[in-house]
Amino acid sequence: MKNQLLTTHKFVIASSVFISSLLASSCTKTETQPFEQESKARISSFKIVNTSKEIIGAIDNETKTITVTLPEGLYMTSLEPEIEVASGATLKQGTDTLITNMVDYFAKGRTIEYPVTATDGSTATYTLIVKSDQPALHVQEISSDPNAPVIYDQSNWYTTNTLYIYNNLISYPYIATYESDLELARASLVDKDGKEYPFKQASTANPPSVASAYMNLSLNNIEGRLTGPANAPVYNKVPAAGDYYVKVRYYSREETLKNPIRIIYNN
Q1: Contact 107/186 with Cβ under 8 angstroms?
Q2: Cα torsion 215, 220, 225, 229: sign
Q3: If we measure between CA atoms, which residue out of 251, 254, 247 comes closest to residue 163?
Q4: What is the spatial distance between Cα 157 and Cα 3, in angstroms, rounded to a whole number?
Q5: Angle at 90 between CA 85 and CA 95, to 5 degrees
Q6: Distance from C-alpha of 257 to C-alpha of 248, rounded to nearest angstrom
Q7: Within the chain, where are the H helices?
Q8: What is the secondary structure of 44-86 as a DSSP string?
Q9: For 48-72, what is each residue's pLDDT tens digit?
Q10: What confidence tens digit (pLDDT) does each residue in 227-250 have?
Q11: Which residues of the chain have pLDDT under 50?
């Protein structure tokens, strides 16, 4: 009898615990997350098609960005996009045109946007980001000592002073033709206040035509140095005597030498 009572007592306790658990479970609040419908105003595909091999853009629908990365050695001055949008959506007319002046894009920055509108009235604007796997220039200094700049005497018009800016690597992926240098290579002298004096042209060279890759700049080829007609040129003291830093750019890469050069006039 005692054992029976103990068994019955245990059953009652177990049953109470089970029922309490059921009650507790039934009181637990269940939160239902609302279904977030994918926006219909979206770009589904973006690629650059004026290259030998199509370049596919990486689309981020969260940040509304499209990233295009140009491979090393590819220097496109313009990009032709091919854009596809979600079913029923439309891309703003005229935004899928040729992207030009890519050197300016890398040098100065530019916002390129693609507005999309869906049939339900929703809108989204995607921003294009163009990157390049072009290696850094890694240029060598002209003046080895910042306190003792290399001096260039610009007193006489017939003196040809040329700056040679060598790369640390023997070879650099310059195209190194006259036409490509006009499009891709830029340089300027920068004074202590940040004012720039652009060169009209920068030239590049690469092995095997030379022993080591470099960019060369003629100081007589600075804008404002030579004025007047071809039969009566006037050589001006531009820039003025002083210390200047050399800034060079090739396509997406830019570098300013840390040590200055010095220009003097003895007349």
Answers
A1: yes
A2: negative
A3: 247
A4: 122
A5: 90
A6: 8
A7: 2-27, 102-108, 178-184
A8: EEEEE-SSSS-EEPEEETTTTEEEEEEPTT---SSB-EEEEE-
A9: 999 999 999 999 999 999 999 999 9
A10: 999 999 999 999 999 999 999 999
A11: 1-28, 35-36
